[in-house]
Design goal:
single chain, 211 residues, alpha+beta, Ribosomal Protein L22, Chain A, 2 domains, five-stranded antiparallel sheet, four-stranded antiparallel sheet, 6 helices, 11 strands, 32% strand, globular
Amino acid sequence: MPLEKIVHEPGRAWGLWHITEHEQELSMRLGALERVPESLTHPNKRLEFWAGRVLVKEILESMKVSFRGIVKDDFGKPFPAGLDYHLSLSHSYPYVAALVDTKHSVGIDLEQPKEKLFRIAPRVFAPGELHDAGTDLTKHCVYWCAKEAMLKVYGKKDLVFAENLLVSPFSLEGEGDIHGKIIVEDQVRMIPLHYVVYPNFVVVFNQSEEI
């Protein structure tokens, strides 16, 4: 089974899925609980849709609750239907990641290190971040994922990556903690983040707010 892992922490769990199935195989695991949007026409995007929901189903069932589908708020942020839980999803074919928390807003992002990040970075990184990332493509990917994860924690889309979502310099390892902050007007919210570097992708998510 392409479920790579489910990691449990107090009040939350996150998981990874490696897509190897056909669309019908994935959709059959959900029955009538979900329906792929008509706007999703690319085969890989459709697979990401189904795999993400199957992964969330696996995570919720591992937390001893039932999956009833996924709903979205006015800003497009997903939530498990029928549960007062928080959810974040990310995908970069053929990989999917999901994070569920019973109390707090969450953000997870999965990306594959690709050369295009070097072109994007000057527009979305603050000068200090750009300097710290240097020419290390994996580090660029961690910075990018960290900002995406914080944006999902915030839950709205009206932030400027280089100004409102900042990440402190860090030494790149195979796995580690980094410090982020969301700055909106005069308010600063510190966001502790954790990253994991896999052979083909990077995952970053906000850490638990539980003491």
